[in-house]
Amino acid sequence: MWHLNLSIDSEARETLAARLRNALRRQIEEGALRSGTRVPSSRQLATDLGLSRTVVVEAYEQLCAEGYLLSRRGSGTFVADSAHPEVGSALTPDETPESDLWDLRAGGSDVSAFPRQDWIRCVGSVVRSAGPRELGYAPPSGLPVVRRTLAGYLGRVRGVRTRPDHLMITSGFAQGLALLCRVLRDQGHETVGVEDPGHPGEWAFIADAGLRPVGIPVDRDGLRVDQLAASGVRAVLTTPASHFPTGVALTAQRREHLVDWARAVDGWIVEDDFDAAFVARAHRLPALQSLAPDRVVYAGSASKVLAPALRLGWLAAPPALTAPIERVRAGWDIGCSGLDQLAFARLVDTGGFDRHLRRLRAEFQRRRQAVHQHVARHLPGVTPLGGDAGLQTYLVLPRWCAEDAMVDGARRRSVLVRGGRHYALRHDDRPPALVVGYAGVRGAELGRGLAGVAAAYRDLGGRVSR
Ligand SMILES: Cc1ncc(COP(=O)(O)O)c(C=O)c1O
Questions:
Q1: Residues with C-beta less than 6 Å from any ligand 1 atom
Q2: How many domains does the chain have?
Q3: I need a surface site. Which of 89, 144, 215, 330 has the fewest CB within 10 A?
Q4: Is 271 found in the same domain as 150?
Q5: Which residue's alpha carbon is nearest to atom 13 within ligand 1?
Q6: Which residues form the HTH gntR-type domain (predicted)?
Q7: 158 and 296 share one domain
Q8: What span, in angstroms and rounded, lies between the C-alpha atoms of 91 and 125?
Q9: Residue nearest ligand 1's atom 2 by CA
Q10: Is 38 in the same domain as 140?
Q11: What is the CA radius of gyration of the chain?
Q12: For residues 46 and 52, what is the distance between their CA atoms, to the nearest angstrom?
């Protein structure tokens, strides 16, 4: 049934059919009825409006004759495309599908690996069994049963020490970060330390919340805690398991120093653990949060491990921050989709999530090795930073190699890739770099993309060994 919200002019000077035609024409011209929209059958509209069917047929015929409607035999009547031609495209340039390009930009997810069948099974089982409680409003922080599952899962795989009532399900990490920034600002913070290089999108979130991101350098041991201490900030956002975008892991000693710093300044550490699942097991340390649950806000996300479209993330907050975060959240929205939360918990409880991650981890490990082998063979003088982690490899280029020229050269070979400067908060004298993301490209595509990068390097003078 296609219904239509329509009110007809009660002015009786014109016939009913003319008034109906005018009302429909107005809706089309004003854009409420858009091109391609199916309108109700004449019988249905006549019933809905309490009119005789001949009145509706007459109005429809007139609008078809005027080019507003289009009648397709057997499939119904539609608002014609010519009624209001679309101006431009709704897609921004970044979203333009570029099917002929190899996209090696960091920040993607392998959505082709999304476990569709498992997810369908979980959604089906949740929808079949959902009662009034599951279909009604959940607490804004998330359904208690889901938070119980998540607390158990995070404790099991990441050593996170939390309780369900200190966990909050968020709409992705993005919302978690925005909530935290708001709470920090309410507590009087004006600045937040961020890793430099790091994620420009996160800096924008922080700045939008009225805080100033302060860049803290990262070296081969991770975040420079000495520089953090010298910066004067009292809150820091960090990716200790696998620094974004270099993939460097924060060493055990630096972790201790970081926690000591937080205690000394009475500050907070926000641990962004979004891709820790892909760190090779031998190199994976428990979450930083396990060292100081009273100082570290642990944050995770389903975006890289399942799909960004789910918009599911979580925060495990220190007890002292739980209530302030909940207060802010209560004023923002009334929580995330309870059905999605339950489907996710079901995936975890049935072991499907662990199975999926095992497969994905092995796949990313293969891609990472392919990048490292390709660099060793075809990009002499280029050094990968970081180890067995991350969904991208940070390649330090020789000083003579201009980063922008590499990016442009790769683009001319249909490869999209970003230079290190894209991820730099301060534009200082750091060596040129290229950040090669491999989350969204499978085997052969990755090989083609890397070949394009090597060709760009060769063109600039990089000698290729045979
Ligand atoms: C550094 C970093 N943290 C977290 C996320 C996950 O964000 P969200 O859960 O909002 O998709 C991303 C996604 O690209 C990221 O790059």
A1: 107, 172-174, 199, 239, 244, 272, 274, 301, 303, 308, 313
A2: 3
A3: 89
A4: yes
A5: 107
A6: 14-82
A7: yes
A8: 36
A9: 274
A10: no
A11: 28
A12: 6
> What spacing in Å lies between the alpha carbon of 235 and ligand 1's midpoint?
19
Cα 274 to middle of ligand 1, angstroms: 6
pLDDT (tens place) for every residue of the chain, 466 residues total? 568 888 887 767 889 999 999 999 999 998 899 999 999 999 999 999 999 999 999 999 999 999 999 999 888 999 998 776 544 433 333 444 455 789 999 999 999 999 999 999 999 999 999 999 999 998 999 999 999 999 999 999 999 999 999 999 999 999 999 999 999 999 999 999 999 999 999 999 999 999 999 999 999 999 999 999 999 999 999 999 999 999 999 999 999 999 999 999 999 999 999 999 999 888 889 999 999 999 999 999 999 999 999 999 999 999 999 999 999 999 999 899 999 999 999 999 999 999 999 999 999 999 999 999 999 999 999 999 987 788 999 999 999 999 999 999 999 999 999 999 999 999 888 999 999 999 999 888 999 999 999 999 999 987 654 4
For atom 14 of ligand 1, the residue with the nearest CA is 107
Within a domain: 9 = no
Residues 140 and 246 in one domain: yes
Mutate to test the pocket of ligand 1, among 303, 312, 336, 391 (most ligand atoms within 8 A of CB): 303
**DSSP string of 144-189?**
HHHHHHHHHHHHHHH-----GGGEEEESHHHHHHHHHHHHHHHTT-
- Domain limits for position 275: 114-350
CATH label of the domain that carries residue 23:
1.10.10.10
In a domain? residue 92: no
The answer to whether position 160 is within a domain reads: yes
Indicate whether 94 belongs to any domain: no
Query: Do residue 162 and residue 307 come from a single domain?
Result: yes
Whichever domain contains 399, its CATH number is 3.90.1150.10
376 CA distance to ligand 1 middle (Å): 29
Query: Which of 181, 199, 237 to probe ligand 1 with, by most ligand atoms within 8 A of CB?
Result: 199
Distance 458 CA to ligand 1 centre (A): 33
**Which residue minimizes the CA distance to atom 3 of ligand 1?**
274
Exposure b/e, 55-87, CB count within 10 A at least 16 = b: bbebbbebbeeeebbbeeeeeebbbbeebbeee
Neighbours of 271 (CB within 10 A): 27
Residues 366 and 328 grouped into a single domain? no
**Closest by Cα among 356, 397, 187, 179 to 270:** 179
Quick one: tokens of 343? 């489907």
